[in-house]
Amino acid sequence: MLQEKILDFMRHEAYRPLSAEDLAEALEIKGEELTEFWVLLDQMEHHAQIIRTRYDKFGVPERMNLVVGTLSMTSKGFGFVIPDVKNSEEETDVFIPVSALNSAMNNDRVVVRLHGAAGIGKAREGEIIRIITRANKRIVGTFESSKSFGFVTADDPKIGQDIFIPKASFNGAKIGAKVVVEITKWPENRRSAEGKVIEVIGYIGDPGIDILTVIKKHDLPLEFPAKVVKESENVPETIDQAEITGRRDLREFSIVTIDGDDAKDLDDGVYVEKREDGTFFLSVHIADVSYYVRENTALDYEAKNRGTSVYLVDRVIPMLPKRLSNGICSLNAGEDRLAMSIEMIIDPNGNVQKYEIFPSVIQVYRRLTYNIVRKILVDRDEALTQDNQDILPMLHNLEAICHVLRQRRMNRGAIDFDFPEIKVKLDEAGKPVKLVKRERNLAESIIEECMLVANETVAEHMFKLKLPFMYRVHEQPGLSKLEKLKDLLKSFGLSLPSLKEGEEIQPAILQKILKATAGKPEERIISTVMLRSLKQARYESQNLGHFGLAAKYYTHFTSPIRRYPDLIVHRLLRENFNGLLKPKRQDKLKTILPDIALSSSQRERLAAEAERETVEMKKVEYMQQFIGEEFDGIINGVTAFGIFVELDNGVEGLVRVSSMENDYYQYVEEQYALVGERTKKVYRLGDPAKIIVVNANVEDKTIDFILADNGTFRPVAPKKTRSSIRNLEIQEEKQDERKEKSKKKKSGAKWYESAPKGKGRSDKKKCSTVKRKTKTKVKKK
After folding, report:
1. Which CATH number fits domain 65-133: 3.40.50.1820, 2.60.40.10, 3.30.470.30, 2.40.50.140?
2. Which helix (H) or strand (E) holds 523?
3. Where is the composition biased (Basic and acidic residues) (predicted)?
4. pLDDT tens across 672-694, in order?
5. Coil, helix or strand for 229?
6. Residues forming a β-bridge with 673
7. What is the Cα–Cα distance from 177 to 183, expressed in whole angstroms?
8. Residue 390: burial class (beta carbons within 10 Å; 0-12, 13-18, 19+)
9. Contact of 501 with 476, CB cutoff 8 Å
10. Which residue ranges make up each domain of the chain?
11. Which of 316, 144, 137, 150 has the alpha carbon at shortest distance from 217?
């Protein structure tokens, strides 16, 4: 590709910035390619892949003391720029002080000029010299106003500045309203950003306003566009016989689905047999969504924009319209469905000996849930066992292959964290009534292992064909993070091998540490720090392996109803069924897949953030009823300003260091601890702690604790909410009305008293008329 050719030359061969003409000459670009070159150069400069100097010469940022990346603000006003590309572990995030932001806002993509060299272990520092793209075109926040102007305080504390709203742009918003603001003027120098209210969401305290605010904040689409709905309505609700032609008919197999009790979008089914030679025949069947959602259709564009289904605490925002996600694409029991199937022969050691991937037609024999399977296989529930006697042998085979596949993963060094998930139960009004800790059980492990082996097999299949593809990758952890983990392990008599730049750590080493600490007091602290030391998994068009799974090849193939990358994987498999892709098509895919991977990773993280935010919000609301009560917990975070304690019910709160009364406490980073100066009392990550709940602020989404044996409980005065501010404003408006009414009365009385004699009765009538008019005017106001 020409773009790669330009970048490679400028990074490795060009010793100085070059003019466009010199660059074209050096690269020997001529003829039709020259036209493409001029257009591409402008595009690359626009996206800051290359930088144009004031003398119209071009160079790459990293060779010009510049960094291109995304600004991540803190609530304290300063920020860090996270580079798009890090060429080594030494290239840390870039610290940006408040004075060097130059009007940039959270999540803006920017160019930074570095200031000097960073010291060992210290962050680099710089100033923002260019804003490439603005991220905050719309902001959700709380509206406040005076008589002549208004402003909106963003809900996101990382948006550290209020948005100025001219009076003409209030759009009916009142003080205390939750609103969506569209930025009309970006901040410049000392001038705040300016915007207009485009939507009034409601007021704090209104039913459902909390979740709706999160939805608006993350710009999650609630409704499907009319064109998408129309396309979905054209999709048939049943399968036509003609659609089965060319597919393998598997409707006689007793395929089962195993999902949560409330799941409606069922996209995977399984079937297994154990053979006489000890091998397993495992087939995994995934809804053939790519058959219905074709490339470049309205459905496809919408699915790409959404990227994933979003599972909020009180609702699901689906990637596809319900007619597809809950209808023709969902593997509902007893109904014919089109599928993409993979059949595998797996030996007793969990290795895939043979496999075949093909389009099929299936009919799910029975819909099972995790609870039903657990009760049959673990609890030995007699009634359920009897009801499912016909598939009982297969369920036992599923249990057996689950253990075989899991052991294979563990043998090769996969890292398996088992942190429980907290589910919030809501009543009909949306109020949290219960927190349920969901720990992974055998039934969930069965499906997990079957899906993992299917995903790995599909990824290896496409990699060996050397075709463009979408991978799920998880890269090696950074050396700096591993050094911190190494320091912690030393204090527990454990160790990590020393690594040099470029050396890789094997996941089996980390797995061994987890096994060694299982069930011990330090298990929690080590698991937490180890998890934080790992990088985040993402989508990529190149195969980089999956560190956490200790897998050479991995993709997401098994959830095309709710994840766009899985839909892409199905599409790529389908195109390959009729022979290898033509070179022109491969070139196009190589161009579009990196963008799809990046977009999908971003949408996945945004969805996870929204999901987490709604859960945390409801946890805070749930804890309001326990102010003043004691709980047992575990310290799961230590900072210079306090310790974070997680309770057994999954709720996390902060014990501020200022509330600790028996000593002055210092933060010792390498020990992940606060240590008392005089008492030498240590509060360390992973230690148990008994706390008292002091405050639970829904608006700020914070919970404050004090230590039961090192603090004094003082009830926190209720913070004025935006709704209470609005009530005060209404009272002020009424008071103004009363004053104006009184003023009108007085002015009317003076008029009567000063009237000429001889006109008393008629003048009294006039006075009454004035009073009535005054009353009417006040009332209207």
Report:
1. 2.40.50.140
2. helix 523-533
3. 729-740
4. 899 999 999 999 888 999 999 99
5. helix
6. 668, 684
7. 18
8. exposed
9. no
10. 2-61, 65-133, 138-203, 226-475+541-613, 479-534, 627-707, 722-780
11. 137
What pLDDT does residue 746 have?
52
Per-residue b/e over 449-472, b at no fewer than 16 CB within 10 Å? bbbbbbbbbbbbbbeeeebbbbbb
Residue whose entry in the numeric block shows the structure tokens 């709940």: 693
- The hierarchical CATH code for the domain 2-61 is 1.10.10.10
Q: How far apart are CA 205 and CA 207, in angstroms?
A: 6
Amino acid at 456: E
Compute the distance between CA of residue 625 and CA of residue 124 in angstroms, rounded to an integer. Answer: 45
Within 10 angstroms of residue 199's Cβ, the number of other Cβ atoms is: 15
Going by the DSSP 8-state scheme, the letter that residue 503 receives in this structure is -
Quick one: tokens of 473? 């990758």
- 60, 7 contact by CB (below 8 A): yes
The gap between the terminal CA atoms of the chain, to the nearest Å, is 68
User: Tokens in use for 487?
Assistant: 């320091």
**Pick among 2.40.50.700, 2.40.30.60, 3.30.70.360, 3.30.70.80: CATH of 138-203:** 2.40.50.700
| Tokens representing residue 431 in the block | 């109020």
H-run or E-run covering 138: strand 138-145
627-707 belongs to which CATH class?
A: mainly beta
DSSP state of 325: I
Low-confidence ranges of the chain (pLDDT < 50): 120, 721-732, 748-781
Residue 267 contacts residue 329 (beta carbons within 8 Å): yes
pTM recorded for the entire structure: 0.83
Gap between the Cα atoms of 17 and 377, Å rounded: 68
Distance in angstroms (rounded) separating the CA atoms of residues 745 and 325? 67
